[in-house]
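Hi team,

Below is the intake form for Guanylate kinase from Bifidobacterium amazonense. Please confirm the fields before the structure is written into the shared record.

FORM ID: S-0412
PROTEIN: Guanylate kinase
ORGANISM: Bifidobacterium amazonense
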Amino acid sequence: MKRAMHGGRLLVLTGPAGVGKGTVENALRKKHPEVWVSVSATTRDPRPGEIDGINYWFMSEDEFIAKEAAGEFLETAVVHGMAHYGTPLKPVEEHLAAGTPTILEIDLQGARRVKETAKDLGLEVLSVFIAPPSFDELVRRLVGRGTETEAQRKRRLETAKVELAAESEFDVTIVNDNVDKAAEELWTLIAKEYGIAE
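The structure came back. Fields below:
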């Protein structure tokens, strides 16, 4: 399906775990509820307070693999060697065709896969990297989350080092040293991309 050209490109948002991608997105959507953020599917267990269909589409591994085989995902990845994640394709195509500012928040693997598959699907991508002010600050944020075991945190920090090294692959970098400032920078990008008066 070739998307309608009256919208902007699909914004692919990536950054290491703990950098605050979700926090920046929430701040953006409070001021600009017209922005649509794709809800990913995952086979990992919900964290406390997470709601199916809001935070993620939680599904069994069998269900996920069946949807993957049917071509229902824009991209899929196994993250931290533990769980499957994927971006349902149909809602992304529908929102872009309607000219709705559309964001995917995914990991590095997923961002690379989207870049590969987007051209075949007639989707154009603007890739945005959310970076921490420093690696030490990223460690502090991850520890402060308190949602992971020591082993999981260690694995995420190793992954974060790889993700930080890939920053140059992205079209734009936004440093999240202040959530509201980072959200405003993201909105400026979106407004320019979609021809919205700020």
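SUMMARY LINE: The helical segments are 21-31, 61-69, 89-97, 108-121, 135-145, 150-165, 179-194.

Thanks, M.
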